[in-house]
Design brief:
- It is a single chain.
- By secondary structure, this protein is mostly helical.
- The chain is 72% helix and 0% strand.
- The chain contains 6 helices and no strands.
- Helix 4 packs parallel to helix 6 and helix 5 packs antiparallel against helix 6.
- The protein starts with 11 loop residues before the first helix and ends with a helix.
């Protein structure tokens, strides 16, 4: 055993350059600050995303940011979800001005459109049947269809004005 000359009052962690443990109250304060910072950054990020119209974004470029097929599929899924939410918001805005019968017609139209869009995307992606790009082609087609649907819903607002 090596002599420990002059190290009698030093904690073992200080000998090796490791800082002493932090007390529980200091640790909990640090965690509160860290969590608060994360929440603040998250809220700022969500706010900036919600302020932009999803239809104005270049979703094809967003999808291509993925480094591999799997990431590109995830980006396509993000795009479809954002655009679907936008269509739902536009429909909700229309519903405020429609009577019960017109509201039912709009909901039926949207339900039929969603079935058609999924079928159309399946048909287009089938050209890659069994390949790694099949589901990616499906996502790209759905993005394009949702963008067209958003344009249709915006035009519907003009068409429904007396």
């Amino acid at each position: 055993m090596l002599p420990q000359k002059g190290l009698e009052g030093i904690q073992p962690t200080e000998r090796y350059g490791v800082p002493p443990p932090v007390s529980g109250s200091v640790r909990s304060k640090m965690m509160k600050y860290i969590i608060s910072g994360i929440l603040l950054v998250s809220l700022i990020g969500c706010r900036s995303l919600s302020q932009e119209n999803p239809e104005s974004k270049d979703w094809h470029a967003h999808i291509q940011e993925g480094e591999n097929n799997y990431q590109m599929k995830m980006k396509a899924s993000e795009a479809v979800n954002a655009l679907k939410k936008r269509t739902e918001d536009l429909i909700a805005a229309h519903q405020q001005h429609l009577d019960e019968q017109a509201d039912a017609l709009l909901r039926a139209e949207q339900n039929q459109w969603e079935v058609w869009a999924k079928s159309r995307a399946s048909l287009i992606s089938d050209t890659y049947r069994g390949g790694t790009h099949e589901s990616l082609a499906y996502g790209y087609e759905l993005v394009d269809l949702y963008l067209r649907r958003i344009d249709q819903l915006k035009q519907l607002e003009e068409d429904l004005k007396p």
